[in-house]
Design goal:
Blueprint: H1 8-39, H2 46-69, H3 76-89, H4 102-129, H5 132-135, H6 141-168
């Protein structure tokens, strides 16, 4: 049993806010992953993006389970704001009026990689800030989540490198 000290209530409140913020981010991230996969249907990017999208969805469910174990409910308001912010991100100029641009792919992959990187920080924060038994159902769960996140980031950066070369040309070695 965890020893209660002064400040525990405040720490629990702050952790709940933090987790709800990550839940909102996972809502936006999953929507972005789905949009990126759809925009790349029939391309060499599709299979990897479909795998990453599925894994992000699984990670989101892991976050929901962790939140439940900690007695934290997701915020519908924050999740809705996350979804709306992802939708607004689609409005940025891409050099084309109505079609998908090669630079759109680059920006989508960068944004998706940033979200995945942030998710890695979530798993590390939970490792440091919370007794493992309070957060996970097994000793290796956070290790596996961190490793999967690192693998997602690696695959996204490989796609990003290819997309960058396609959009802007190969790197020069002058």
């Amino acid at each position: 049993m965890r020893t209660v000290r002064r400040g525990d209530a405040d720490e629990s409140r702050l952790l709940a806010i933090y987790l709800r913020d990550h839940w909102a981010g996972s809502t936006a991230g999953l929507a972005l992953a789905a949009r990126c996969r759809r925009n790349n249907a029939g391309t060499a990017y599709e299979a990897t993006l479909a795998d990453v999208e599925r894994e992000i969805g699984e990670d989101r469910e892991e976050l929901r389970a962790i939140m439940s174990r900690l007695g934290v409910t997701p915020s519908r308001t924050k999740a809705a704001l996350g979804a709306v912010s992802e939708a607004f991100a689609r409005l940025k100029a891409n050099g084309r009026i109505v079609t998908y641009s090669p630079s759109s792919r680059v920006v989508e992959l960068e944004t998706l990689a940033a979200g995945v990187s942030t998710k890695g920080h979530l798993w590390r924060t939970l490792r440091v800030s919370t007794p493992r038994g309070d957060v996970t159902s097994s000793e290796t769960e956070l290790d596996e989540l961190e490793q999967r996140t690192a693998n997602q980031l690696f695959r996204l950066m490989e796609l990003h490198e290819r997309a960058t070369a396609e959009a802007f040309g190969p790197a020069r070695t002058d």
